[in-house]
Amino acid sequence: MRRSNLYVPILLSAVLLALYYFVKSDLLQFDEAGDIRATLFGEKGQRLEFAVAVALIILGVRLFDYLAFDFLYRLRRRDAAPNLLRQIISFVLYLGLIAYAAHSILEANVTGVLLGGTVLAAVLGLAMQDTLGNLFAGIALHMEKTFTVGDVVRVKEIFGTVEWVSWRATRIRTPENNVVMVPNSVLARESMEVFPSDNLNARLVRVMAGFEHPPARVIAILERACHNLEHVATEIPALARVGEFGEHGTVYEVKYWTRNYQLRETIDAEIRRAIWYAFRRAGIPLPFPVRSIAPHRQARIEGFSDQKLAERIAKADFLAPLSAEEREVLVEGTSVEVFGRGETILSAGEAGSSMFLIDEGEVSVRRSEREGGGEIARLGPGQTFGEMALLTGEPRGATVIALTDVVAFEIDKRSLQPILKENPVLVESISRIVLDRKTSAPASPSDASDPHESMLGRIAKWFGL
Q1: What CATH number is attached to the domain comprising 240?
Q2: Domain carrying residue 175
Q3: Domain count, the chain
Q4: The model scores a pTM over 0.85
Q5: Which of 16, 189, 238, 361 is the least buried, fewest Cβ under 10 Å from its Cβ?
Q6: How confident is the model at residue 19 (pLDDT cuts 50, 70, 90)?
Q7: Cβ atoms 155, 187 nearer than 8 A
Q8: In terms of domains, do 217 and 187 share one?
Q9: Which of 223-232, 299-308, 450-459 has the highest mean pLDDT?
Q10: Does 256 share its domain with 386?
Q11: Which of 116, 135, 153 is the last residue of a domain?
């Protein structure tokens, strides 16, 4: 409750108290027309006294509501008190205190009024049937803790996030940002599906791949694509499975868990986006009916050319010793790869025989979990990573994650091996450059365990020179 809700009852109480003391004095009276106080406020001013009591009751109940729920409840539970609970307690206090004031000040027979009037009670009960139904339904929902503010619910055709619960209705905001007021009696009567905000809720994303691709390979690609995506829970890894065999390919289901189910559509879109990038790199086209007679070719990445790749290779430090002709040979065997934001490009400890040359975007190089994690460096256009796996075949020494959408050129062992066999002198130049780079970086465990094996020998052995 806002503290501003206390200002009106404070002001009203002050005005009525001032008027009460003014009337109790002898200032307000007319001898010729009789005492006006008795006409307006009763013989003893009890009507005005009752009004003052009501104003003080309103002030007291609101003050109690503020201290009990906005201060003590939040301090102890670390959460906001349910609106329905506050409204019911306030209503009971108002009813009891005003009835007591009426009995004490106006000498009204409150008990007789409450116990008598059977016909009036029946009429009011029938007239307020829906209202009372919503009230008791709201109490039942609150006592059973069916849902809380922030939960996502589905009731009949209504689907959205619970924003507020009152004694009469529950406010639900739909994915279209519309507000729907659902009576509590409807919620208590209809079947309801609840996705708690503090729970790991599962969701499925369906995607299709061609029949020619082995399910084991596709499933591994799908599961890898979901790693490190925002709002996807890490407690339970996302899993993929074969859903069904469709008309144009195999339908796979990607099941993930999240604590932010209200963002389900955004998460679904991010997963589909990551899958598109992963499928493109793996050479898996999304199947669709092709009725054109001309053969279908996958479009090349926009802005990519052999000349641009050759320029990037020429600027890479350890590839600088290559001649123009050798760079042209390397370009022919180099592939261009695209990665979506948040994707894991390389994982520490995995086998590899290629390196990457960044053309667009930015990546984060991180230590393995065994080494405590943490970011080592950030790399951008023109910089390379994964050289040691390309040159020596040793496992990846760090994890590399895309911070933005990344376009990178992948150079593998098969492309570089013919060049080194044709010109073995290049091995010495390349090894010297790589050694200079490793000298400026912290020593790795592999360096410490085998200090006598030179970089030149490791490269020559790996490429069979």
Answers
A1: 3.30.70.100
A2: 144-195
A3: 4
A4: no
A5: 189
A6: low
A7: yes
A8: no
A9: 223-232
A10: no
A11: 116
Same domain, 10 and 89: yes
> Which two three-digit tokens encode residue 216?
């084991």
Q: Is 98 part of a structural domain of the chain? A: yes
Same-domain check for residues 324 and 458: yes
- Whether residue 125 lies inside any domain: the answer is no
Long-range contacts at 160-168 (CB < 8 A, ≥ 24 apart):
161/262, 164/83, 165/82, 165/83, 165/84, 165/138, 165/141, 166/83, 166/84, 166/87, 166/138, 167/84, 167/87, 167/88, 167/91, 167/134, 167/135, 167/138, 168/131, 168/134, 168/135, 168/138
8 A C-beta contact, residue 342 and residue 228: yes
